[in-house]
Amino acid sequence: MKNLNLPKKVFIKEVGPRDGFQIEKKFVPTENKIEVIDMLSACGFADIQYTAFVHPKAIPNMADAAEVSAKIKRPAGVEFTALIPNQKGYERACGLGLKRVELTMSATDSHNLSNLNCTSLESIARLEECLKLGLETQLCAGLAVVFGCPFEGRPPYERIRMLVDRIVGLGIKDLGLADTSGVGDPKQVYDICARLVDAYPSVTFYVHVHNTHGAAVANILAAMQAGITHFDSSVAGLGGCPYAPGASGNVATEDIVQIFEYMGIETGIDIDRLIAAAKRVEEIVGHSDSATLKAGKMGHLVEGGPICQNNRQ
Ligand code: ZN
Questions:
Q1: Residue 218 belongs to some domain of the structure
Q2: Secondary element (H or E) of residue 64
Q3: Is residue 4 included in any domain, yes or no?
Q4: Are 224 and 7 in contact, with CB atoms under 8 Å apart?
Q5: What whole-number distance in Å separates Cα of residue 301 and Cα of residue 35?
Q6: What is the 250 CA–ligand 1 centroid distance (Å)?
Q7: Distance from the CA of 208 to the center of ligand 1, in angstroms?
Q8: Residues with a known catalytic role
């Protein structure tokens, strides 16, 4: 019998405060952002992507990035990271003392042009310019729409490989692979991840999936079979992309934490604190996309079968 290829431990980067709040139509008050980030930083995450340093006209909800940075609690063991689109964002993040940022770009030119007003290769040139500055803040990269683009469909593997090759060639060791629109399927996710993991054994790939068509958890398991152990997810299943029409939220962090723990995979996350944070997020923004918030915490197996403890009582 063949066993599932399961790691002992996974690393979850919480991206809700960035990917989630960025898409909200109403401005999320700064004090609410800080409250949620503080709740999340007590959950056990090693990395919280808490904001983006982008032009406030492009993403109005991230206009308070500096104030949020100044006011959040910074418990030991939690790294607070951010998304940036370009050199200006990089310099702002460095000025605020961030240790690490993710420069975002897309696997297709159409998405890159609508999101960042330049081609994918021009974004890689921006990354190179940032690296040349020699600043202390470490640069990672994130590739959006790897598993499907709302404008171009699924990019060919050769295109993904060419972009990854150029990014890795610049010395980048951490690279996000995002299903920004949530249109990937498990076989495709497995195939792309397996080929990349084989080709770049020293690179840490983060898989970032949205749940537009309900395939997010299956895609995560498929990525895991390919050797991926690093995942992005979002509290309360918030998220979206302003330039990916119709995309829905990220996979909910509390959903995958529960599933991982039941599978015997360590996450290091306190599920009760995380569910409390998810409920607070739902109160603040008025919606969520989380099986855990709907169905409650998974019950423990006892005599007679599983008992659900409904958190909504
Ligand atoms: Zn996303």
A1: no
A2: none
A3: no
A4: yes
A5: 34
A6: 6
A7: 7
A8: 241
CATH number for the domain spanning 266: value is: 3.20.20.70
293 inside domain: yes
In a domain, 62, yes or no: yes
What are the tokens at 176? 């996000």
Output the pLDDT for position 243: 66
d(CA 103, CA 127): 7
pLDDT beneath 50: ranges in the chain: 301-313
Percent helix, strand, coil in the chain, to 5, is: 40, 20, 40
Cβ-based neighbours of 39, under 8 Å, separated by 6 or more: 273, 276, 277, 280
For the segment 170-212, what is each residue's pLDDT rounded down to a tens digit?
Answer: 999 999 999 999 999 999 999 999 999 999 999 999 999 999 9
Question: Would you tell me how many other CB atoms lie within 10 Å of the CB of residue 82?
Answer: 27
Q: Whole domain around residue 73: which residue ranges?
A: 11-141+158-172+227-312
Give the gyration radius of the chain's Cα atoms: 19
pTM: 0.93
Number of domains in the chain: 1
4 C-alpha vs ligand 1 centroid, how far in Å?
27
